[in-house]
Amino acid sequence: MRKRPQPEASSSSSSASKSEPQASDEQIKTGSSNDIHVRSAKRSGLAWTVAFAAFVYATYGVYYYQYEHMPPPLTADQAGKRGFSEFEAIKHVKALTELGPHPVGSDALDRALQVYVFAAAQKIKETKHWEVDVEVDFFHAKSGANRLVSGAFMGRTLIYSDLNHIVLRIQPKYASEAAENAILVSSHIDTVFAA
């Protein structure tokens, strides 16, 4: 790049500027002249606006894909005996909330577990698909502990005692190797005191 000529302020400066040697094309290419200054290009406002718009669009795309683009919920008829029905699941949630508050250790929690959850597990066992076996087990835990490894209460240990549990095991009839492998889906139905 060539240096821009400065405007002539007086006649003495004009003669001085005329006597300064100009950089040749070879000096410009090689950068050997001391008078040549290279300036970094400045980003225009349009470039920053386009970059910001692309960032916002990409962020919205991730949000839409993760939270707004969910599969449609299925009814019991659409899911059949092999699928999962969101409509049936929300019916269970509503039925449990109608029982009122049932915090850990309360009689209300035991009633909710024995009256509603155990009955729902028995119904699953009775209406199961013909290719699977369903076992329902109701057991009592005298004591236990759970160490929290993340979240606001990280590092704390929850200790519990005298809790009832229901385990529903579903396994295929004709795959003997399935007994060695299992996926545990766990849930709790207790509520906080204020709920």
Automatic annotation (TrEMBL):
Presence of the UniProt keyword Nucleotide-binding in the record: no
Membrane-crossing segments per the record: 46-65
Keyword line: Glycoprotein, Membrane, Transmembrane, Transmembrane helix
Protein's cellular compartments: Membrane
Any one Gene Ontology molecular-function term assigned to this protein's record: metalloexopeptidase activity
Biased segments, Low complexity type: 7-24
Highest taxon of the lineage: Eukaryota
InterPro entries: M28_fam
Keyword ATP-binding: no
Region named Disordered: 1-35
UniProt feature coiled coil, ranges: none
Protein's UniProt name: Peptidase M28 domain-containing protein
Signal sequence segment: none
Organism: Citrus sinensis (Sweet orange)
Location, primary (coarse class): membrane
One GO BP: proteolysis
GO CC annotation terms, alphabetical: membrane
